[in-house]
Amino acid sequence: MQVYRDFESLKRNLSTVISIGTFDGVHGAHRQILNKVLELAKEKNARSFIVTFDPHPQEVLKNKTPGIKLLTTTDEKIKLFEKIGIENVLIINFTEEFSKTKARDFYKDIIYSKTGVSDLVVGYDHVFGRNREGDFGTLQLLGKEFGFEVHRVEEIDIENIKVSSTRIRHFLAEGNVDMANKLLEYQYGFEGIVVVGDKNGRKLGYPTANVEAISANKLIPADGVYCVRVEIEGEEFYGMMNIGFRPTLTEGVKKVMEVNIFEFDRDIYGGKIYINFLTRLRSEIKFKSKDELVNRLHQDKEQSLNFLKSKK
């Protein structure tokens, strides 16, 4: 896959099927759009092309809209695009100045003049340009002016729930990773660095790796205990992760993320780790004693193993 980060390196080709958006999460509804891009590109012997933005527009326009936590970093989006089969991605540096670009100017100066376009695929609610002034009707007019066809993909739902990045964020904020994963159509996760902790887990018989997310703007699911899949240097493991303040062991001042990796005993301090959330086991609890906590950890591990066995 070819990734472009500036306009100068672009190669204009009018035989291009393109879609434009933030694509945060690259979820089920986004995949309908991406699949349509691939379908048209194959049908018309054209190249597939995605245009997205970094940083996310809401990160730049914080004075106008509340800042959001992201489902996917730009690197994660690129990997998902590539996995789906997209051939080309343009990442536009989104600035406050760029946000003032008029709808017609965006298509004339960038899409038509820089990338080229024969077909444009958009979602049912796609808006664009300064103050979100452009909509589907605007695109149809631009298509006639610049010679491209516009295709609209309708809204989809999974288990009677409309798929959107906002809904997925809400599910993750509640700790409902099961439903979030269904709407995403893959397991939600984040990349982190293993840092030194207080080693309390080892004393309890459940050694943990303390993890700090690499991206400060990445959405982390609600506090609680989760069954997780762990990726370390290309190897895959399973375990259980606690997110919260460990009220049984500490004063509950500092929030931590710590993962107990099953059948694993290696020094990975300072290394990268990727955590994928499979299901939520329970809320974080303040136990009366360490023995009570250990007993519950035994139950958590058994529940995790039963869950993993059920998915084989």
**Quaternary status of these chains?**
single chain
CATH C-level category of the largest domain: Alpha Beta
Order of helices and strands: EEHEHHEHEHEEEHHEHEEEEEH
Question: Helix fraction?
Answer: 25-40%
- Amount of beta strand: 25-35%
Q: Low-confidence stretches at least 5 residues in length (pLDDT < 50)?
A: none
Order of strands across the biggest sheet?
1-4-3-2-5-6
Tally of structural domains:
2
- Tell me the CATH superfamily of the largest domain: HUPs
- Give the overall shape: elongated
SSE class: alpha/beta
Largest sheet: 6 strands, parallel
**What is the third-level CATH name, the topology of the largest domain?**
Rossmann fold
Mean pLDDT: 94
Q: Please give the radius of gyration in angstroms.
A: 22 Å
Which tags fit this structure?
2 domains; Rossmann fold; alpha/beta; 312 residues; Elongation Factor Tu (Ef-tu), domain 3
Write the SSE topology.
Elements: E1 2-4, E2 16-20, H1 28-43, E3 47-54, H2 57-60, H3 74-84, E4 88-93, H4 103-115, E5 119-123, H5 136-146, E6 149-153, E7 157-158, E8 161-162, H6 165-174, H7 177-184, E9 189-195, H8 200-203, E10 209-213, E11 224-232, E12 235-244, E13 256-261, E14 272-282, H9 290-310
Q: Mind explaining what this structure looks like?
A:
The chain has 312 residues and is of the alpha/beta class. It folds into 2 domains: 149 residues, Rossmann fold; 123 residues, Riboflavin kinase-like (Elongation Factor Tu (Ef-tu), domain 3). Helix content is 31%, strand content 27%. The strands form 3 sheets. Strands 1-4-3-2-5-6 form a 6-stranded parallel beta sheet, sandwiched between helices. A hairpin with a 2-residue loop joins strand 7 and strand 8. Helix 6 packs antiparallel against helix 7. The protein is elongated and about 75 Å long. The relative contact order is 0.12. The model has no long low-confidence stretch (mean pLDDT 94).
